[in-house]
Structures are given as C-alpha cells and as structure tokens.
Amino acid sequence: MHATPPHATPPHAKPPAQPLGRGHGPGTRTRTRTRRVTAVAAATLAVAAVTPVTLAYASPSATVSPSTVAPGGRVALNLEGCGTKTGRASSTAFGEVLLTPGNLQATNLFANATISRNASTGTHRVLFECGNPRGEQVTISIQVISGAARGGIGGSFASMSTGQIAAGGALAAGALGTGVWLLRRRSAA
C-alpha cells in the first residue's frame, strides 16, 4: 500500500471551488466582458429610446419645397416636432390641406399642395398648425413667380442645387439598400 504524502492531492479529489467572478480562469474574463458589453448596450438603447421623444417635441418647424414656384406647380409641405398625428397647412396660394404622419412616431407630418393657377405673384404666407386649430403654429413664406409650371422632373428639381439632388439620391439609395437587406435577412431566417 502506497501512502499519499500529506501535501499532495489524491488523483480523485477535486480542487477547492472559487467564488464566481473572483477567479482567474479563462471564462471569468469573457463573462466580465460580456456583462460590460451588455450594460453599455442597454444604456445606449435607453438613451436612443428617450432622445427622439425629447427632440421631437422641442419646437415645431416647417418647410415648403420648393420655396419659389409658379402657378400650377406643386410643393411639398413638411411639419416636424408637433407630437400629434394630424395637422394642417393653409395659404392663399393653395388653400388648405391636411397633413398626415410621415412615420409611426408622428415626428413629422407632410402633404403635397398645388399652387392655384390664378394665385397672384409675390410672397404668400403658409400657416402650419399642429393638431387642432388651437395647436402650436408655424408660419413661413413661399414665393409665387410668374410663368407656367414646369412638368416632369425639370419642374421638381428646378430650384434645387446639385448637392441637394445628390443628398436626396443618396438617401433614396440607402433606403432601398436597407429594404433589400431586410427582405433577404427575413427570407434567410
């Protein structure tokens, strides 16, 4: 019979357990790193979830594009920061139109309007209203110029710079690429 020395561990005995997270084993660093990444991701999501809400309702702003147009031409109306799902825009140049949400959060409302064929040349005020007629209001101006409205693409892009056209094209291409990626990802799953 062989005796085991007092300082040696028998071959069938297990080493003493160390408390979780305090050891220096190979899995400890991975668990710690995973916890940190999870905490950072959670904090980022919390900030991202709150940020659009606080920015969306700060103060309404509006745009009319193009801002210079001939009678019979079309303009795009956009109102941001209302916090409502309805709105309206009115002007002596085109009458009154209802604005509808541009996204699920209703951070922007939009519509298109046609300038009246008998609209007088000069500056016309456009009044944007959030929600009901007593909601927040924004007023901007458009310029009606003499001449016939251009048809086709030329009329849409006449008052836009090359940079604006390029930026719009890049945004449209990005949206298309994202849509294709999401559809492929869904079909792969």
Can you describe what's shown?
34% of the residues lie in helices and 26% in strands. With 189 residues, it is of the alpha+beta class. Strand 5 (95-101) and strand 6 form a beta hairpin.
Strand order of the biggest β-sheet: 1-3-6-5-4-7-8-2
Major sheet summary line: 8 strands, mixed
Oligomer: single chain
Q: Ranges with pLDDT <50 over ≥5 residues?
A: 50-57, 151-156
The span between the termini is 63 Å
Structural class assignment: alpha+beta
Task: State Rg.
Answer: 31 Å
Tell me roughly what share of residues is in helical segments.
Answer: 25-40%
Query: What's the rounded overall pLDDT mean?
Result: 74
**Annotation field: number of helices:** 3
What is the overall silhouette? elongated
Number of strands: 8
Order of helices and strands: HEEEEEEEEHH
The share of residues in extended strands comes to: 25-35%
Quick tags:
8 strands, 34% helix, 189 residues, alpha+beta, elongated, single chain
Brief account:
The protein has 189 residues and is of the alpha+beta class. It has three helices and eight strands; from the N terminus they run αββββββββαα.
Topology, pairings included?
Elements: H1 26-56, E1 61-65, E2 68-69, E3 74-80, E4 87-91, E5 95-101, E6 108-114, E7 122-130, E8 137-144, H2 152-157, H3 162-188
